[in-house]
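FIELD: query
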Amino acid sequence: MSFNPASLITTLQSKAELSTLNSFINGSSKLQSLFSTASDYTFLAPSNDALKSWMSTRSTPPGQDEIEAILTYHLVNGSFPTVSFTNKPQFAPTYLTNSSYSNVTISPAGQRVQLLLGSGGQPEIISNNQTISTVQTKVY
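FIELD: result
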């Protein structure tokens, strides 16, 4: 999702399928500040189902630190509308620069995500650990 920074939190809160994401953002002053001040970005908002799936792989609930890292990894530097995805991968830097969770020795800093058209011409986002996410809803 790509938004005007002033409206990102409001837009996210209007989506019932993002209620878990919203509770994470509301529980973190760091995330609230980041989402209020970021500019020229694309936010890959994880749905309730995606977050439930992530949490089900864990033996303990994630700590605040890890939640903040995961969500800053979903905030990509720059505008990447899905119409710009091609068969050639784009490696986009994210706002995740915490060295406990990312490789920040590259420039510009920020863990990368891979953006490309997958099989069937559908937009895909591939994480550093090769998890493939798809776009369910586009909101501009």
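FIELD: remark
The chain has one domain: 5-134.
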